[in-house]
Design a protein that fits this description.
Blueprint: E1 4-8, H1 20-28, E2 31-34, H2 37-46, E3 56-58, H3 64-76, E4 80-84, H4 96-105, E5 110-113, H5 118-125, E6 133-138, H6 143-152, E7 159-164, H7 166-180, E8 185-190, E9 198-203, H8 204-212, E10 220-224, H9 234-245, H10 250-261, H11 265-279
Parallel strand pairs: 1-4, 1-5, 2-3, 2-4, 6-7
Antiparallel strand pairs: 7-10, 8-9, 8-10
Helix pairs in contact: 3-4, 6-7, 7-8, 9-10, 9-11, 10-11
């Protein structure tokens, strides 16, 4: 195995959601590092990958300054180092950033074995537009800072994606409803790929009410669809409808474009009917 730093994506729930290449790297790397060594050891056991006498080092936010030099020393010695976060893809809301930056600055090869990611999994199943999305990671714990963070994203014309803890979910959704608009479409995706996987859809206001007194369990991704915007012009909608009508029915084009811009469906459907007749495409 060539020397260098290998960022290895691991499952977010179902242990079988790991790639063959990731297993090869975990089997052959000279040094293993993980945000949670217990989780990584368990994953190795499940897939029959022997650890042997190789070092398996914990590397996380609280010990990065101390452990990072050891990993860089291994790279300097021409060894291969594989790093895995606790779940999902390294560098997505986890402590891998400083390690990758240090390795690159020192001139060592850095590559990735891509795979599972909670935010991508949520976008896959939620039914919200995915042509553009903005990942906001974890919002601040404090209510005021959280609302300011949401306010900064009000004008982003994309589906918004956040990670959130169960105990803060209700407050976060209420702040989002108050800041971004209670009618804005959203989804709460919980325990993705696990036995009790759930994707609850609704408006921000409805979801905030649902979770206000009933905090859920498990890992959570919150997705918030595009809101209405004064910057959206009839020309923008017509252009998107014309493109959609090339491959979709009037009904499907209206559904897609209204969701894309976060606007009411009825006027978009009526406009799609007009464009369809003008183009002679039928319904």
């Amino acid at each position: 195995m060539a020397p260098g730093l290998y960022m290895v994506a691991v499952p977010i729930g179902n242990a079988r959601d790991i790639t063959l290449r990731a297993l090869d790297i975990l089997r052959d790397a000279d040094v293993l590092a993980a945000e949670d060594t217990r989780s990584l050891r368990r994953l190795l056991e499940i897939h029959g990958v022997p650890l042997g006498d190789r070092p398996c080092l914990a590397y996380h936010d609280h010990n990065g300054e101390r452990v990072r030099p050891r990993l860089l020393d291994a790279l300097a010695a021409g060894q291969s180092v594989a790093y895995a976060s606790e779940a999902g893809t390294p560098m997505i809301s986890d402590p891998g950033f400083d390690l990758v930056r240090a390795a690159r600055e020192a001139g060592y090869p850095v590559t990735t074995a891509p795979g599972a990611s909670a935010v991508i999994a949520a976008l896959t199943v939620a039914g919200l537009p995915t042509d553009r999305f903005c990942f906001g990671g974890f919002l601040p714990n404090a209510g005021g800072a959280r609302r300011r963070g949401l306010e900064e994203m009000r004008g982003v014309s994309a589906t918004l994606a956040f990670y959130e803890s169960p105990k803060r979910l209700g407050a976060m959704l209420r702040d989002a409803a108050d800041t971004l608009g209670a009618d804005r479409p959203a989804a709460v995706c919980r325990e993705l790929t696990k036995r009790f996987e759930e994707c609850r859809q609704g408006s921000l206001g409805d979801l905030a009410d649902h979770y206000a007194d009933a905090p859920p369990k498990g890992e959570i991704v919150v997705l918030i669809g595009r809101g209405g915007s004064e910057k959206i012009s009839e020309l923008d909608i017509d252009r998107s409808l014309s493109e959609a009508l090339q491959t979709m029915s009037v009904r499907d084009a209206a559904d897609t474009v209204s969701a894309m811009y976060g606007v009411k469906r009825r006027p978009v459907y009526q406009r799609a009917m007009v464009l369809s007749r003008e183009d002679g495409q039928g319904g």
